[in-house]
Each structure stands twice: as structure tokens, then as C-alpha cells.
Amino acid sequence: MHDLVIRGGTVVDGTGAPALAADVAVDDGRITAVAPALGPARRDIDADGALVTPGWVDIHTHFDGQVTWDDLLTPACWHGVTTVVTGNCGVGFAPCRPDERRRLIELMEGVEDIPGTALHEGMRWGWESFPEYLDFLADRRLVMDVGTQISHGPLRTYVMGERGARNEPATPDDIAAMAAIVREAMDAGALGFTTSRTIMHRAIDGEPVPGTYAAEDELFGIGAALKAAGHGVFEVAPAGVAGEDDLAPSREVAWMRRLAGAIGRPVAYGMTQSNASPDLYRDLLAETQAAADAGAEVWMQVAGRATGLLFSLETTFHPLRGRPTFDALAALPLTERVAKLRQADVRAAILAEPTPPRSLLSSFGDRIVPIGDEVDYEPSYEDSLVARADREGRAPDAVLYDLMLERDGRRMFMIPILNYASGDLEPVREMLLHPRSVFGLGDAGAHCATICDASMTTTMLTHWARDRSRGAKLPLELAVKKMTADTAALYGLRDRGALRPGLRADLNVIDLDRLRAHPPEVLYDLPGDCPRLIQRADGYTATVVAGEVTFRDGEHTGALPGRLVRGGRG
What are phi and psi of 508, to 5 degrees? Predict the structure, then answer.
């Protein structure tokens, strides 16, 4: 008598092996059999006509603060995710003295667009050192497992104080102290160390993330702590990949290649296609492969779709901002604002005012796409605001104005920016197919007012494996593998990521025909009633974590089997 049997599904086991018809048995939180016609169970899940996959392992999230108050870690939980990794991009909350909390919140707010009010009001603190942070998380009961990394921003601030926060050079004693704390964190169960080197990552006071300009002796000194610990990933948000310096990415890969060789640990960097240098990503693919051929563990974290902006009348940024008549109405509640904007004299006044320099409309009008009942993550030029304006013989801002008032001011728009220089997702497909790429960069929990890419896991199946019409698809088995076995393996999570006997019973049962991400919407459900963008999903028949059913048809069952995942535990 098994604890649970998922019966009659099509098993896509996460390894890349061909799909097969089989049942999956679960006992004591582990998978015990994958075979046809398994015996009786205390609980059954009927998976006839559905896919059965491992749970998604999302290695790039920013739930560092949210994990202290939110048991569900929304919106990731609605998209089949059963394990998340935090501490990315060099920002986090440990180690941290009590008088440094405000600084780290402001750093997270500036870099990851998480409202400072929500963090101040929502976060529960109970640590100073990184091991104490892990112990705090170990006491949490969550809907999914959480692992975390020690990040350069809080580390540098903790060791160097104001000098570290202001990116002054580290002394040999500073480096030794940072390395000792990283080693302590790794021994306690950190999954890795992260740093940011892009000038796009700044605190709300405009200061780049501590460590942005760290010299090689600092980076290699900290990396040596991972070598000594014998586990963990050295993750980099590199300079230049977003277009701020065309020559920087090649320089970055060069030192990361040397670092990986020196410490014998994986070095992973985030990679996107920039508009300024649209072919540069191919050079980086080649350089990363050359590093692999030379024996260096250099990996690319790549996204499953374009990175860009979402906007509506409810979001912080949109193309009507900066026009005086509109800005005078911006503080009104949405219903009152929409009523004013529908007045003919107000409309005429706003449209008569000049478009602000470098506005979203002037910069990306040919990419602004209104979102309907379904979200098309690979829109064509013909779908854009400018193309629509041309067809109607009207000015783009007039068309935008009218569209933004639809759905009572809640009409959402998308602007694909990075990974979309050619107006399609072919560069993303190349990246996903590269043997040294891992799926990530969804930033779940972050950029609350501008993106909602926690749903990227769902898009991997709906767009890449099922619906894509503007180019070749990806095999279903590969799409699943990129989100499960590959991501788990990079972080040494050997007990999950595949449907094999003995591994952890983290699973999804998915009705692929019904699977869809809802259009993004704004909710005011963060602490302090702060807004954020969220997306729900249809088609996840069941999600299972450690053998317990956590979601049925998108609704939480009440189960909270998720725990802290500590690295280096075999």
C-alpha cells in the first residue's frame, strides 16, 4: 500500500529521456516506483491525459524578505515551482547588524524594485550572522523548499561598514574577513555566493551594489572559500550584458573562466541579448563553450522569454508619465483618475503636451503591445502600438491613451526589451539549446511594479513546447529538463529534479491542453498595502512537495511541507 500513486499520466521525468506512460508511487516523501499499473495507495491522483513532471527548481528568485512573512511565496507557487533559490544578484539580508537593516532594505528596494514599505512592515528579523539567518529559515513552514546564497552587498557592508557600502577598495584584511564569513556560511548550508558588477544595479540613493567594482583579489579571495568548502556556485550579475559596455562581457567571461579553474566550482553568470549589441550573445555562447572545453565550469543563466516592462494606469512607469496634466491626476484613486481621463478636455490637454524626452513611447513605441485575454510572449511588429496607429491613421499617443482606459484603466501592456533585438525569440532559443546554459532570471518576488516573470516556468511549456508559431519549438522533454534536473544539478541538489526512485517526491501533474498563464494584474496585497504585479495559472492539476499535495487546480490545500535546503549535505 503506497502513500500516493499518480496514475495513468505521461511521465516526463526531467532527465531528457522520452516521455512514457507510467504511474508514479510515493512513500515517505520519496518516489518509490515509476512503472505501469502500480498497486493500491492510500491516495490516488488521476493523471489520465496529463503530464507528470518533477517540480520546477527556480534558481533565480528574490524572496529573501518575503520568505519571512509569506508561507506560499506567491506568485511562484502558482506556476509549479517546488524549490526556489534566493540571495541572487549580490543582494540579500545576511549577515546584518540591527543598525544595517535599513541600508539593506534600501539596497533591495533600489536593485530589485521591492517596495521598501513592504519590507520594513513585513519582514521578521531574528538573525545577525548568516548561519543564524539559515536557522531562522529552518524554523519556517512553507509551501515549497527554499535554499539561499550569501551575497556580496550585505557581506561587504558587514565587514567594511561605510567603506564597503560605498565601494571603496578592500584591504587584504577585509578580504580575509569576508572569505572567513563566506566559508562559515557555506559550512552552515549556503548554496553559493553572489555578486553584481552591472552599474544598472543601484540602491535607492543611486549607489551601485557593494562589490560592483571589486578587484580581482577580492573576488578570487572570496571564491577560495567556496573551494575550501567543496560545494557551492559563484554567481555573477556581470557588467556589460545589458548594453552598458560592449567590451565588458568578454572581459567578464575571461576572469570568470580563470576563477572557475582556480576554485574548481561552477561560476554562473546571467546572460541576455542587448539592443545595443544584438549579436554579442553569440560571442558569449562561444566563449562560454571554449571555457567548458578547457575544463572550466562556467555556466550561463538564461531566460525563457524577453525581459522588459509591464505597465498600466496602476503601475509606476508608463508612457503618459511626465505630462503635467496627467501627473496632476496621478495621486487620485484609479476609479476617479479614469473618470477624469475620460473627459474630453482632459484628454485634449494631455495629448497636446509634448512627449517627455526618452519616454517609453518614443523609445519603444514599436514594441509596446496591449495584452488581451491571452499573453503572447513573442509578439510581432504588427501587434505593436505604432503599427496599430499606422493602420488607424492616428498618433501613437492617442491610440495608447484610449487603450489605457479600457477595462476601467486596468488594461495591461507589455514591452519586450532585452532578448528581443530582432523582434522574435530566436536568440532565446539559441541560448536555451546551448549545453552550458541553465534556465533562470525569472526574478520571482522582485520588480514588483515592472515585470512578472515568475510565470516563466509556465511559458516554457505553453510557448516553447506547445504553441510557438514564429519559429521552431523546443522538445517537451528538454523544456522540462531545463527547469528540473539541470537547475538542481548546478546547485548540487542531488535529491530532486527527476522522477527516479529514491529522489524527493516533488512533482507536477499538468493538463497541457489547458495550461495557460493569466494576464498580469496589480494586487495591493504586500505589507503596507503596497502594489505588485502577479499572474495566476490554469492547468496545474496538482503540485506535490515531499509527497504532500500542496495545490489542486490552482488552490492551496493548506499543506506546508517546504523546508530550508542546506547545501553541502550530499
Answer: -125, 140
What is the distance between the alpha carbons of residues 104 and 94, in angstroms, rounded to a whole number?
A: 9
Assess whether 276 and 341 both reside in one domain.
Answer: no
Domain range for 326 is 310-417
Looking from the CA of 189 toward its CB, the CA atoms found within 13 Å total: 19
Question: Are 80 and 47 in the same domain?
Answer: no
Domain edge (last residue) among 417, 435, 465: 417
Residue 324: C-alpha distances to residues 18, 316, 353, 354, 519 (Å): 59, 16, 8, 10, 30
- Non-local CB neighbours of 90 within 8 Å, separated by 6+ positions: 111, 151, 152, 153, 194, 195, 196, 201, 209, 210, 211, 212, 237
Residue 9 identity (one-letter amino acid): G
25: which strand partners? 5, 33
Together in a domain, 283 and 350:
no
pLDDT in tens, 303-350: 999 999 999 999 988 898 999 999 999 999 999 999 999 999 999 999
In a domain, 561, yes or no: no
C-alpha cell at position 486: 539541470
Measured CA to CA in angstroms, residue 32 lies from 25, 38, 221, 403, 494 at distances of: 5, 11, 43, 54, 16
Per-residue pLDDT reduced to its tens digit, 446-489: 999 999 999 999 999 999 999 999 999 999 999 999 999 999 99
Q: Is the same domain home to 79 and 134? A: yes
* Residue 563 counted as domain residue: no
- Report how far apart the first and last C-alpha atoms of the chain are (Å, whole number): 29
Whether the full predicted model's pTM is greater than 0.85, yes or no, is: yes
The CA-CA-CA angle for residues 113, 118, 124, to 5°, reads 120
Q: How far apart are CA 400 and CA 423, in angstroms?
A: 20
SS3 of 218, please? helix
